[in-house]
Amino acid sequence: MTKKLAMAVAALALALPGTGSAQVKIGFINSITGPEAPIGENLTNGVDMAVEDLKKQGVNVTLVKQDDTGKPQVAMSAMEQLATGDEVAAVVGPYTSATANAVAKLAQQYKVPQVVPAAAKEEITKQGYDWVFRLNAPAHQYAQSLIDAALTFGKPKSIAFIYESTDFGASVAGAGKDYAQKKGLKIVADEAYQKGAPDYRSTLTKIKAQNPDLVFMVSYVADAILLMRQSREVGLKPQAFLGGGAGFDTAQFEGEKDISNLVFSVTQWTPESSKAATAFADRYKAKYGKKPTYHAACAYAAMMVVGETAAKNGGDRKKIRDALANGSWTGIMGKVDFETYEGFTNQNKLVMPVIQYQGGKSETVFPKEAAQKKAVYPFPGWK
Amino acid sequence: MIVFLQSVLSGLLVGGVYALIGIGLTLIFGVMRVTNFAHGELLMLGMYLAWLAFTGLHVDPFLSIVLVAPAMFLWGAFLQKSFVNRVLGALPQNQILLTIGLGLIMSNTVMLIFTSDYRILTTTYSSSSYKLAGLSISQPLLYAFLITVAITGALYWFLLKTDTGQAIRATAQDRDAAQLMGINVRRMSVLAFGIGSALAGTAGALISPTYYIFPQVGSTFTLKAFVIVVLGGMGSVVGATLGGIIIGVAESLSAVYIASGLKELVTFVLFLALLLFKPAGLLGKTRA
C-alpha cells in the first residue's frame, strides 16, 4: 500500500526536484456552506489531498480556507482578507463562475496570482488579467464537444436549450447556441430557468411540443436529476439528451439508472483518462468513501501546481505569476500549460471528453481517440 | 391547448403542496402573531425524516407521514414551549431574530449530521406518470396532492367542528377575549405551533419523492410560504389554500408563456399588485 502510494505521489510529482522542506502560505476560497456546498465539498477534499501530497514532497503548505457561501460579494471580501490580511502567496478558487469572476478582478488589482480550478464562465480568462489562471476548460468547450459528438453520431437538425439562469448555465448555453448556429442546427427553444424550482414540467411540455432532435441541458447538481425525471414523465423523446457537465456529471446522476441511461454529458476529467488519474481516484475513494468528481480532480491539480510553484519561488507573488505563465506540469489532469490564445489569457487548453451513461456507468464515447465504448444514438425512448 | 392544460394541471398539483406549507405558517401566525421564519427548516426536517424512514426502515415516503407528522408535532410543541413562548409579547424584530436563529441552528445541525450532500429519494414511481387524453400526470405529485386534499379537509373539520379547533380559532380571533372566556391560550399556542410544524413536516415528506433534499432547502420554501400566506391573508386557512394554488398555477403558466427564468418575478409582481389593491390579502381582515 505504501509502495502504491509512493508511486502515485511520484506519478503526480510535477517538475520539482526533491529539495528540503519549504513553507508557503496559500489561500483557498470555496463554497463551504450555502447552496453550492455539496460540490464545494469535492473541491475541499481535492485541495486537502494535494496539501498532504505536497507535504510528502517537502512543501509545507499553510492553507488559509475562506468560505464564500456561493456569493460573489462574500468571495470578494474573502479575497481582500487573503491578499492584504493573511498575505498569502497565491489563491486557489473560488468554485462557481460568478464568484471566481468577481475575485479575478481583485486578484488583478492586488496582484495576487489566482488559479481558478473549475469555473467555466468564458470571461474569467478573457479580460486580459495576467494574474488570473484557469486550469479547467471554459464554457464553449462543453458545448462544442457535445454538439460535435452529436453531429458525428447522427444527423440532428434542431436543438432545444434548457439551462439555469446562472453565470455557468448562461455561458455554456450561450456558447452552445452560437456553435449550434454555426453548425446549421435550428434552435427551436431557448429556456432559462430559475434553479431550485420543484417543477419544470410545464417548460418541458413546451419543449416537447417543438419536437427537437437534440435537447441540451445545463444545470448544477440535483436539478439535473429533476429535469430528467420530469422529461420522462412528460415523455420528451429527442434523438439525444446532451447534459452540459456539472449536475449531469455526478456519481448521483450516474446512479439514477432509470433516467440517466443513454444521456450524454461532457466532463473536465475522467478517472480512466490516465494511470495517475486512476491512482488518484482510488486514493480519493479510500479516503472519502466516494468517487471523485472532476471538481475534486481540478482542485487537486490546481493546488499541486500552485503549491509547487509557490515553494520554488519562495512565496514571491511576482515570481510565482511568471513561473505559472511560463511553466508546464503533468499530473492527474494530463498536461497543464497556461497559454494565451484566441482572446484567452493564461488559459489551460483542455480537451473535454464526452461520456454517455450506459446502464448506470459512464463510458467515454468521444472523441474517437479517447472512446472506450460505442455511443448509442439515437435515443430509443423511455422504458 | 395541450400545453396550456398540462401547465395548469402541474401548477394545480404543485400548488396543492404549497398550500399545505402555507396553512401551517398561517395557523402559527394566526394564533400567536409570530411569523415563523423557521418554517422552511421544519419542512426540511420533515424531508430528512422521510428520507431516513425510507432508507433505514424501507417505509414509502407517502406512508411515512404517519411517523413524520407526530414527530414534527412534538418537535414543534417543544420549540414553542421552550423558545417561542418567551417572545410572545416581545417586539416583532426579536421574534424574527429568534425564529431565524432557530432555523439556522436546525439547518446547520442537519448539515453536521448528514453533510451537505444532496439526497435523492428514488422510489419505483419517482418518474412515472399517468396518461390521460394527451396529458401526463406525475404519479408522485398526484399522490402528494390527494394526501394534501385529505389533510386539508381533516384540518378544516377539526378547526370548524371540534371544541379544541374552535378554541384555536377563538384564540386567533382575539387572544385576550379568548382567555377571558376560559380558553387556555397557552395550550392553544403549543397546539397551533405543533400542528403548524406537523403540516410543514408533512409537506416536506410529500415532496421528498419529487424534489431533492439538502440542509439549506428550507429557505426557498420559507419565502414561498410567506408569499402564499400574505397573498391569501395572514391568519386565514382558506386564504392560504387559495394562495398556494394561485402561486402554483401562476408559476407554471408564466414558465410556459413568459419565460421559465421569470416565473418568480411574475409571482412577485402578482403578489405586489394584489397587495396594492387589497393590502390585507385575498381573504384577510384588516385588524384594528
What can you tell me about this protein's structure?
Chain A: Residues 1-22 form the signal peptide. Chain A: InterPro entries: BCAA_transport (IPR051010), Leu-bd (IPR028081), Peripla_BP_I (IPR028082). The complex is a heterodimer of chains A (383) and B (288). By secondary structure, chain A is an alpha/beta fold. Chain A folds into two domains: 24-137 and 273-347, Rossmann fold (3-Layer(aba) Sandwich); 140-267 and 353-370, Response regulator (Rossmann fold). In chain A, 43% of the residues lie in helices and 21% in strands. Chain A contains 13 helices and 16 strands. Chain A has helices at 2-12, 37-56, 72-85, 97-110, 139-153, 167-182, 201-210, 221-234, 251-255, 257-260, 275-288, 294-312, 317-326, and strands at 22-30, 59-67, 90-92, 114-116, 132-134, 158-164, 186-193, 214-218, 240-243, 264-266, 329-331, 334-336, 338-341, 344-348, 354-358, 361-366. A seven-stranded mixed sheet of chain A has the order 7-6-8-9-10-15-16, sandwiched between helices. In chain A, strand 11 (329-331) and strand 12 (334-336) form a beta hairpin. In chain A, helix 1 (2-12) crosses helix 11 (275-288) and helix 3 runs parallel beside helix 4. Chain A starts with a helix and ends in a 17-residue tail after the last strand. Residues 14-19 of chain A have low confidence and may be disordered. Chain B is mainly alpha-helical and 288 residues long. Chain B has a single domain, classed as ABC transporter involved in vitamin B12 uptake, BtuC (Orthogonal Bundle), CATH 1.10.3470. Chain B has eleven helices and four strands; from the N terminus they run H-H-H-H-E-E-E-H-H-H-H-E-H-H-H. In chain B, the strands form two sheets. Chain B has a two-stranded antiparallel ribbon with strand order 1-4. In chain B, helix 1 crosses helix 6, helix 3 (65-82) runs antiparallel to helix 8 (185-207) and helix 5 packs across helix 6 (163-173). In chain B, 54% of the residues are buried. Chain A binds chain B through residues 33-35, 37-38, 41, 162, 165, 191-194, 196-203, 205-206, 209, 221-222, 225-226, 228-230, 232-235, 252, 256, 258-259, and chain B through 2-3, 6-7, 10-11, 14, 111, 115-118, 120, 122, 126-129, 131, 136, 138, 207, 210-212, 214, 216, 220, 251-253, 255-256, 259-261, 263-264.
